[in-house]
Amino acid sequence: MTDFQLAARVKRIQPSPSTAAAAKAREMKAAGRDIIDMTVGEPDFDTPNPVKDAGIAAIRAGETKYTPVNGTLPLRKAIAARIKRQTGQDYPLDAITVGGGGKQIIFLALMASVDEGAEVIIPAPYWVSYPDMVLANDGQPVIVPCSEAYGFKLKPEALEKAITPKTRWLILNSPSNPTGAVYDEIELKALGEILERHPHVYVLSDEIYDEIWFGEGRFTSLVEAAPLIRDRIFVVNGVSKSYAMTGWRLGYGFGPPLLVDAINKLQSQSSSCPSSISQAAAVAALTGDQSFVAETRLAYRRRRDIAVEMLNSIPGLSCRAPDGAFYLFVNCAGMMGKKTPHGGKIENDLDFVLHLLDNGVAAIHGAAYGFSPYFRLSIATSEASIREACKRIADACKKLL
Ligand code: PMP
Fold first, then answer.
1. pTM to 2 decimal places
2. DSSP letter string, 158-195
3. DSSP H or E run through 390
4. Whose CA is nearest to atom 3 of ligand 1?
5. What is the pLDDT along the chain (401 residues), one digit of tens a residue?
C-alpha cells in the first residue's frame, strides 16, 4: 500500500492532548493500575431523568428524521428564551444555529470566516482545541500569554497590542477551560472599548460553562457588557456542561446573521443537521426545571473549596480558587528542577504530570494549554476521589528532592 497523501491542514494539527491524556489514564486503569483520573472534561453527573425521558419520547413519537439544518423551531425558540433569561438580549431565531456540540459550532464558525493567513487572537492559557481549529482552517493563531497575577485574563492593553490589520477574531472563553477564570462586567467592558476602535475584529465568545460559576447573581455575557459591538460577537454555548449531556452532542451559537447563514450552509453540506433526538432532549433541558443546574453548581463549588485548600497546603504548589467551570489550574513552578526517586529530573510540567501518573493521579500538563509550568486537574469527580487525589499529589511532591 502506498502512503496515503494527507492534506496539509491535517499535518498542521495534533489530536486533542486532553483526549490523549484521558486515553492513557484509561489504558493504565484497564491494565489494573490504581489511577484517579483527573483529566476528564465532562460532568460526572448523569443526564437528568426528564431530559433522558424527552429523548426517549422523541424516539417513540417518530422524531427520528432529518430536521432543519439550523435546528428545530422549538429548540431555537428555547435557546432564544434562554439567551433572554441569561443576558437580557433579544436574538431573532435566524441568528441562532444548532450543531453537533459547541466544538463543531466553533469549527464551522472559523471555517466560515477565516481565510488563509487571517489572524485569530487566543489568550493563553487556552482551551486546547482553539489553535488547532484555527490552523485546520488555514488561519494563524496569535497566542497572547495572560499572567496568573492578572487571574489568567486578557488585559485590554495586551489585546490592543495583538491586533493587526490581519486580525479576524479574538476568542474569549469565560468561564475558562483550563483556568476557571471569569471576566466580570468591568473587564468585559474594557475589552469591548478596545474592540470598538477596531471594527474589523470579531469576537468568538465561548460561554459554554456559563452555568458553572461561583459568583453571586447572574454570569455576565459579553453581549450584555459590550452592546456597542454586539453585531461583531458570536456566542457559543451548548447543553454538554450545564446539563451533563456531553454524549448527546448538541451545541449552539448565535450572532451575526451572515455568519450564521454561512455556518448553516457548511452544515448543510457536512452533517445536514444535529441529531433530532438530542434536539428534543435539549428542549427539555433548556425549558424544564433548572434545579439540576443549581445543585451541580453547589457540588462543584464544594469540590473546588476542598481541592484548593488541600493543594495550597502542599509546599511547592499553589492554586488560585477558580471562579467557574470545573477545573483547577495549579502552579507547579516550585517543583521544577527537583529530582525524582528514579534519578530523573523534573524539567517541565509534562515531567511533573508523568511523576503524578506514577503516583496514581492523571492530570494534564500546562503546556497543552499553552502555559507552563502548571497542570490542570478536573474536579468533575467525587469529593472522596478529590481528597484521595490531593493526598496522592502531596505524597508525590514529598518524593521529589
Ligand atoms: N469550549 C470549551 C472551552 C470546552 O471546554 C468544550 C468541551 N471540552 C467545548 C467548548 C465543547 O463542548 P461540546 O462540543 O461538548 O459542546
1. 0.97
2. HHHHH--TTEEEEEEESS-TTT-----HHHHHHHHHHH
3. helix 383-398
4. 177
5. 568 899 999 999 987 776 677 778 888 889 999 999 999 889 999 999 999 999 999 999 999 999 999 999 999 999 999 999 999 999 999 999 999 999 999 999 999 999 999 999 999 999 999 999 999 999 999 999 999 999 999 999 999 999 999 999 999 999 999 999 999 999 999 999 999 999 999 999 999 999 999 988 789 999 999 999 999 999 999 999 999 999 999 999 999 999 999 999 999 999 999 999 999 999 999 999 999 999 999 999 999 999 999 999 999 999 999 999 999 999 999 999 999 998 999 999 999 999 999 999 999 999 999 999 999 999 999 999 999 999 999 999 999 99
Q: Which domains does the chain have, with CATH numbers?
A: 8-46+292-398 (3.90.1150.10), 51-287 (3.40.640.10)
**Ligand 1 atom, smallest distance to 250 CA:** 16
User: Which residues are bridge partners to 171 per DSSP?
Assistant: 204
Residue nearest to atom 7 of ligand 1 (CA): 41
Distance CA 293, CA 303 (A): 15
Burial level of 318, CB count in 10 A (0-12/13-18/19+)? middle
Q: End-to-end CA distance of the chain: give it in Å, rounded.
A: 51
Grid cell of 308 as nine digits: 484548593
Name the β-bridge partners of 318.
331
In SS3 terms, 186-249 reads as HHHHHHHHHHHCCCCCEEEEECCCCCCECCCCCCCCHHHHCHHHHHHEEEEEECCCCCCCHHHC
CB 89 within 8 A of CB 224: yes
Torsion, Cα 123 247 239 124, to 10 degrees, reads -10
Ligand 1, CB within 6 Å, residue ranges: 41, 101-103, 127, 173, 177, 206, 208, 238, 240, 246, 251
Ligand 1 pocket test, pick from 129, 212, 279, 329 with the greatest ligand atom count within 8 Å of Cβ, gives 129
In angstroms, the Cα distances linking 184 to 173, 216, 219, 337 are: 12, 11, 8, 37
Distance, in Å, from the CA atom of 221 to the CA atom of 226, rounded to the nearest integer, reads 9
Distant-in-sequence, close-in-space partners of 379: CB < 8 Å, separation ≥ 6: 38, 300, 303, 304, 307, 326, 327, 328, 386
CA distance 91 to 186: 23
**Cell 489568567 sits at which residue?**
152
